[in-house]
Amino acid sequence: TFSKALGVVYQIKDDIADFNPVKIEPSLLNAIIYESSTKYEQQIILTNWKKNKSSIYDTQLINKAESKAEKLLDFYIQETWKVLNKLENQDLKIFLSAALGKIIGQV
């Protein structure tokens, strides 16, 4: 649905904007980095997270995570547009398109 896709778009954009590679906190990028890591690296990440310690990620790993997050963002933006294009009520379509534009920065 539109609201679900729009919510995911908003959350991904927020996680990308707020990402701090030194601070381990729940976010899409940290989840991507965790999933992309070896078992040993995952243990270090979990240990640091449990102890509220910072973590220094490899720049290449950060770039890969940001790239994957951007691809997910693009996917959900497209999903949102697909739902909008199916709407028959033009006033509603214009209103929701404006809301999406504000969230993705196309105002």
Q: Tell me the distance between the termini.
A: 22 Å
* SSE pattern: HHHHH
Structural class computed from helices and strand pairing? mainly alpha
Summed over residues and divided by their number, the pLDDT gives a mean of 87
Radius of gyration: 17 Å
Main sheet specs: none
What is the global morphology? elongated
Reconstruct the topology from this structure.
Elements: H1 2-18, H2 28-36, H3 39-50, H4 59-86, H5 90-104
List its traits.
107 residues; mainly alpha; 5 helices; 76% helix
Describe the protein.
Helix 2 crosses helix 4 and helix 4 packs antiparallel against helix 5. With 107 residues, this protein is an all-alpha fold. It is built from five helices and no strands.
In a few lines, what is going on in this structure?
The protein has 107 residues and is mainly alpha-helical.
